[in-house]
Design goal:
The protein is of the alpha/beta class and 310 residues long. The protein has helices at 29-41, 56-60, 72-81, 94-97, 101-112, 134-144, 163-171, 175-182, 198-201, 289-308; strands at residues 2-4, 18-21, 47-53, 86-91, 117-121, 125-126, 132-133, 147-151, 155-156, 159-160, 186-191, 207-210, 220-228, 235-244, 255-260, 271-281. The chain has two domains: 2-153, Rossmann fold, CATH 3.40.50.620; 185-308, Riboflavin kinase-like (Elongation Factor Tu (Ef-tu), domain 3). The strands form four sheets. Strands 1-4-3-2-5-8 form a six-stranded parallel sheet, with helices on both faces. α5 packs across α6 (134-144) and α7 (163-171) packs antiparallel against α8.
């Protein structure tokens, strides 16, 4: 998958795509339906996604609490798995934010990227002040020479599939409900960093990752599926993970500590993708290390049982 970040400097082979447009945070089932429509719209054209970095919400409210379901790298990984050929990850800056709806259609879609067809959700808004609608885009496409398909919003068993609903499920410790809307396990992806090695001393060495910039799921212990994406230990594993601030050790900054079952090796510097499968319990403070170790034994035994059944 090729990644293009500037709509004003596009190679000839990256023009003429059929694309889905949106933020694609989480790449949930609704997003996947829009991408599927783009694939069918012009079958002989490269399949693309137009998205923005930073997320417009982050650009306009940089001090707001973290809300993203996935990092830009994790989003790119997920889109590549869906068969996307071109990821137009456009720099969202003052110039792009200031384009009128007509200006966005002309300068970005028609002239800049030279797109053949675009697919958007029925609630799509674009241009300065989000004043452009999906129907406006249809009109601009007819005038400027690109096709437009408006995709209906996807409804799941629990209502509309949306990034907001997925965040709510994760906040409440319901990763299976989040997965039902995502179409995949919610994953936290990042590089393994050095920790204080307390887990190793307790007989449970963990791979530690920061969750900066991401919406934090409910703090506690989870049964997890783990993909080591690079390095000598590349592969898929099962495990148990603790997400939070480690109250037993007076932690302050949230992180994710993952224990991989039946694993031996050094993961420092490797990129891990940790899928949350089931919430086991909240973070707790114990009366001494023996009680903590006993609980960790029970957590891992329960996680093994759960993961053996999926």
């Amino acid at each position: 998958m090729r990644i293009i970040r500037d709509y004003q400097y596009v190679e000839p082979q990256d023009r003429g795509a059929t694309v889905a447009i949106g933020n694609f945070d989480g790449v949930h089932l609704g997003h996947q339906a829009v991408i599927a429509l783009a694939r069918k719209a012009v079958p002989d054209a490269p399949l693309g996604v137009v998205t923005f970095e930073p997320h417009p919400r982050q650009y306009f409210a940089p001090d707001a609490p973290p809300f993203r379901l996935m990092s830009r790298a994790a989003r790119a990984t997920r889109l590549a798995k869906l068969g996307v050929d071109r990821l137009y990850e456009l720099n969202f800056n003052a110039a792009l934010a200031g384009l009128t709806p007509e200006g966005f259609a002309r300068k970005v879609i028609a002239e800049g990227l030279g797109l053949r067809h675009v697919v958007v959700g029925s609630d799509f808004c674009f241009g300065k002040g989000r004043t452009g609608t999906a129907k406006d885009l249809v009109r601009f496409g007819a005038e400027m020479g690109f096709g437009v398909t408006i995709a209906p919003l996807l409804e799941g068993d629990a209502g509309r599939v949306s990034s907001t609903a997925i965040r709510t499920a994760l906040t409440e410790g319901r990763p299976r409900d989040a997965a039902a809307m995502l179409g995949h396990w919610h994953r936290i992806e990042g590089i393994v960093v050095g920790g204080e090695q307390r887990g190793r001393e307790l007989g449970y060495p963990t791979a530690n990752m920061w969750i900066d910039g991401l919406h934090p799921p409910r703090f506690g212990v989870y049964a997890v599926l783990v993909d080591v994406q690079d390095g000598p230990h590349k592969g898929s594993y099962t495990g148990a993970a603790s997400l939070g601030v480690r109250p037993m050790f007076d932690g302050q900054v949230p992180n994710l500590e993952t224990f991989l079952f039946d694993f031996k090796g050094d993961l420092y510097g490797a990129t891990l993708s940790v899928g949350l499968v089931e919430y086991l319990r909240p973070e707790l403070r114990f009366d001494g290390l023996p009680a903590l170790i006993a609980q960790m034994d029970a957590d891992c035994a329960r996680a093994r049982t759960i993961l053996a059944e999926i």
